[in-house]
Structure formats: C-alpha cells, structure tokens
Specification:
113 residues; mainly alpha; two-stranded parallel sheet; 2 strands; 4% strand
C-alpha cells in the first residue's frame, strides 16, 4: 500500500480520533447555525456589521441541518445527536419568531416572499 493510500485510509477512518471528529462535527453544526442566525437577523453580519434578514436563506440552512439529522441517524454519539437536535429546535423557534414580525422599514431587508 502506498503512502498516499495509507493517508486516504487514515482520513476515512472515523475512529482515528473520536474527540477530534466530534469537535469537527460540532464546529460544522455551529457554523451552519451561526449563518442561519445571521440570516434570521439575530446576529450582525461580521463583514458588514449590519443586521440582515433573509428568511428564505435561513430556512434553507435549517433544512440543511434537518437533512444532516436524517443522513447521520444512527452514526452520532448521544452528545452529538443532542447538540444537533438542540440547534435545529433553537433555529426553528427563532424562525417562527421572525416570521411573525413585519419587515422593518429602513432595515437591510432582503426577504423575498
């Protein structure tokens, strides 16, 4: 087996470092959650400093996390599963809260309905 094949096998081995894999998974979920919160208008865009609200994009990110839940079912630790479920539930509650609000005048509103 070549060194390249060994490296590929090592990368594909989820048991290589379970702690690192869990941290990467949680980091990814946190990244997606942060983007969705930004699109919900709950967090300012770090590049512009402005609060932006785009519920369609936020909903797409929430659906992405729900897809992750389906695709990873049975492959996550209890802690990872709870982390994913908590983030999805939090985003869904915030989405409902924002969907009830009328668009703000003068705000950086990019919402299309």
């Amino acid at each position: 087996m070549s060194d390249e094949q060994k490296d590929e096998q090592k990368v594909d081995d989820p048991g290589d470092d379970a702690g690192q894999q869990e941290a990467l998974f949680k980091g990814f979920i946190s990244l997606v959650t942060g983007i969705a919160m930004q699109q919900l208008g709950k967090v300012a865009n770090p590049l512009t400093g402005q609060v932006e609200r785009n519920l369609d994009v936020a909903r797409a990110w929430i659906e992405t996390l729900k897809m992750m839940r389906v695709k990873t079912r049975g492959n996550l630790s209890e802690d990872e599963q709870r982390f994913l479920e908590t983030n999805i539930a939090n985003l869904q509650m915030n989405y409902v809260d924002e969907a009830k609000k009328p668009p703000e005048k003068g705000a950086a509103e990019k919402q299309v309905r």
